[in-house]
């Protein structure tokens, strides 16, 4: 039977399918007439068990999806669908892993901006970022990387000092002063519990100051994704904004968050952007499902979100 829909499985779903207790669910997905998809976000996230994941994805006859407009920097709602070749893609990612390690200090800076790791201070984070990025650039096997990527890395290398100096001038504490009370009001008493996904976004916007609200709505009016061309990564940025404003119950505060946790939270937003090109997004993560539903509904996507039960061999 010809496969119909394109189904994007969250990484937590693929992770569960590795467990013997979920053998029945794995077999169910294997018999599906739909196309099961994974993306570059999965490839990065699966590195710790790349052998097991490669076998799983190959057994499920998954397809690899990516933004068809990646080279021009724009988001395209229709993705390119390629043969999975998961084991090979996972191996290639491992061999090029050092080029992606530069993202670590960038994520730490973003986490600090959104209210996390306050105990370190921006000076410590900036110095660490500068050292990490420069060391990584010096040790990259650039002869094995795409030409366009090499050019981007050289440009970044020349701008590191300027970027780091700019970070030191950012008023992080002032930002926290605006974020903290907003998140507290958004989460106290769980006021969004029974709201429609779009109503949740409207509620968060209503908590902003008049100036902030105007700027947010001008940038992200309802159905914005259907009415203008988006930049690559912009939808993930919108999801991260809602996340930081307190849309999800367990992920709206960043103080004290560990780096690994924040990295996972950031990837939730990237998975949501990738899944927006598919008919269905499937996850075990209740908070990720809430975030995805609000992002898709407000931005104007028809992607259905399916939350699986956490029981053995759970079903939707």
Write a compact overview of the structure shown:
With 316 residues, the protein is α/β, with parallel strands linked by helices. Helix content is 56%, strand content 8%.
Structural summary, described in words:
This protein has 316 residues and is α/β, with parallel strands linked by helices. Among the domains are: 98-168, no CATH class; 172-272, no CATH class. 56% of the residues lie in helices and 8% in strands. It contains 16 helices and six strands. A six-stranded mixed beta sheet has the order 4-3-2-1-5-6. Helix 7 (103-113) runs antiparallel to helix 8 (122-138), helix 8 runs antiparallel to helix 9 (147-168) and helix 11 packs across helix 16. The longest helix has 22 residues, at 147-168. The two termini are 22 Å apart.
Mean model confidence by pLDDT? 81
What class, by secondary structure content?
alpha/beta
Adjacency order of strands in the biggest sheet: 4-3-2-1-5-6
Amount of helix: 55-70%
Rg on CA atoms, Å: 20 Å
Cα shape:
globular
The H-and-E topology, N to C, reads as EHHEHHEEHHHHHHHHHHHEHE
Q: Tally of extended strands? A: 6
Low-confidence stretches: 251-257
Largest sheet: 6 strands, mixed
The amount of beta strand, in percent, is 5-15%
Distance between the termini: 22 Å
Q: How are the secondary structure elements laid out?
A:
Blueprint: E1 6-9, H1 11-17, H2 23-30, E2 35-38, H3 40-45, H4 50-59, E3 63-67, E4 79-83, H5 86-95, H6 97-100, H7 103-113, H8 122-138, H9 147-168, H10 172-187, H11 197-206, H12 210-219, H13 224-227, H14 234-245, H15 259-275, E5 280-283, H16 286-299, E6 304-307
Parallel strand pairs: 1-2, 1-5, 2-3, 5-6
Antiparallel strand pairs: 3-4
Helix pairs in contact: 4-5, 7-8, 8-9, 11-16, 14-15, 14-16
């Amino acid at each position: 039977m010809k496969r119909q829909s394109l189904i994007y499985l969250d990484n937590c779903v693929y992770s569960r399918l590795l467990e013997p207790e979920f053998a029945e669910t794995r077999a169910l997905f294997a018999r599906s007439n739909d196309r099961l998809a994974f993306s570059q976000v999965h490839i990065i996230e699966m590195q710790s068990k790349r052998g097991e994941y490669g076998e799983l994805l190959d057994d499920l006859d998954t397809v690899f999806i990516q933004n068809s407009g990646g080279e021009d920097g724009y988001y395209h709602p229709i993705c390119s669908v390629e043969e999975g070749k998961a084991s090979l893609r996972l191996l290639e990612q491992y061999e090029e892993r050092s080029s992606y390690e530069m993202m670590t200090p960038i994520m730490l800076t973003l986490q600090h901006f959104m209210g996390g790791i306050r105990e370190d201070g921006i000076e410590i984070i900036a110095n660490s970022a500068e050292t990490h990025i420069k060391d990584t650039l010096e040790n990259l096997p650039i002869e094995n990387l795409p030409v366009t990527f090499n050019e981007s890395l050289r440009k970044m290398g020349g701008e590191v000092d300027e970027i780091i100096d700019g970070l030191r001038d950012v008023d992080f504490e002032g930002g926290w002063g605006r974020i903290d009370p907003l998140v507290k009001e958004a989460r106290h008493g769980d006021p969004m519990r029974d709201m429609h996904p779009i109503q949740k976004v409207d509620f968060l916007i209503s908590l902003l100051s008049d100036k902030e609200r105007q700027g947010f709505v001008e940038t992200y009016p309802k159905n914005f994704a259907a009415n203008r061309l988006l930049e690559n990564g912009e939808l993930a940025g919108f999801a991260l904004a809602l996340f930081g404003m307190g849309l999800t119950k367990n992920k709206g505060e960043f103080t004290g968050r560990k780096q690994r946790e924040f990295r996972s939270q950031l990837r939730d937003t990237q998975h949501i952007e990738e899944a927006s090109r598919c008919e269905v997004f499937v996850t075990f993560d209740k908070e990720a499902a809430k975030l995805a539903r609000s992002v898709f509904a407000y931005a104007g996507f028809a992607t259905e979100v399916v939350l699986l039960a956490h029981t053995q061999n759970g079903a939707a």
